[in-house]
Amino acid sequence: MYKKILFVVVALLLTVTSFTGCKTNSCDVCGRGNVSLISLYGNGNAPFICESCFNSLYSSGANGGTEELPTPTPSSGSELDVKIQAINDTLDEYIASGNYEGATAYIIEQLDLLKVSYSNGDFSELEQRKTSCMNEYRQRALLQATQAYENEGYQSALDVLYHARTILGGDDIEINSAIEYYNQFGTLLFTDFLDEYFYRGESGWRVETDVLDNTGAEYSTAVRLYAPNGGSNAYVYLLSGAHTSFSGRIFLGYDDRSNDDVYHTVSIYGDDELLWSSPKITMGVMPIDFAVDISGCSQLKIDVYRSSAYNYAYIYVANGALNP
Q1: Which residues, including other chains, have CB under 8 Å from residue 318's CB and lie 6 or more apart?
Q2: What confidence score (pLDDT) does residue 247 get?
Q3: Are the CB atoms for 264 and 280 separated by under 8 Å?
Q4: Secondary structure class of 108 (helix, strand, coil)
Q5: Which residues, at least 6 apart from 258, have a Cβ–Cβ distance to it below 8 Å?
Q6: What's the DSSP call for residue 71?
Q7: Secondary structure letter of residue 249 according to DSSP
Q8: What pLDDT is recorded for position 185?
Q9: What whole-number distance in Å separates Cα of residue 281 and Cα of residue 267?
Q10: What confidence category does residue 222 fall into, taking pLDDT thresholds of 50, 70 and 90?
């Protein structure tokens, strides 16, 4: 008798849900809530009934025992809920062990996969946990980088940060800012910071490739210096205090190796104090290596003088670098 009544109830539900298409939060037959619901016809649509009611209907058949109901299929909503719960459980394990790197990598990966499989799913809770994990891991990575710098130097700090960036993404502002900060403690090539001047005189200094000096030696890159007719031209750079010397090689270009109509000199200043000055650079002068102590200086000025108002020659700095 109960099964016949149950069948009538289900029939009425089918009539209603065919018009509404709605899913309730409880069994559409017995009304029990907080239970795992099953799509009656296995197609993910209403009506949704609990396992107990489904088994009762299945044993009798929906038309009095002559036809079996389809195998139950969990709704897509319940599948997603189960997966989200499993992700939360795993995430809790990572966090409980203090492994925020693992937690961050895991939640980023799992969220990406869920969004592919359930494009209309509600992931607000996981998004909040993802943000929380990323924030915690970021702060730990920055602290670890500071400790690595104090104990082992800037390169160790950079190693920590570059690894963190692979987890958090290449557009992470705080990690990228920290990388930029620690990079300044390494060797900076003149070719890389040429245009980062504080102020300059006339333009004209530029990076050139495959440069030959007046002996025929080749350099993959070098900075070509320039001074106006019979005058000087200077570039000034601000120093961070992380470097102790400025070094390089100055030479006359190969095409001007026989030019004795003009000479140049190069002078290097630290905080407006002359630290080094080259001899006259002209025909017959070999390339000149220099290394100038800039410890404690806040500004570096490189000044080039050209002797002639009518003749010119190209001079270069190769291997120029600020050294830690």
Answers
A1: 211, 213, 219, 221, 222, 223, 248, 249, 251
A2: 98
A3: yes
A4: helix
A5: 283
A6: P
A7: E
A8: 86
A9: 12
A10: very high
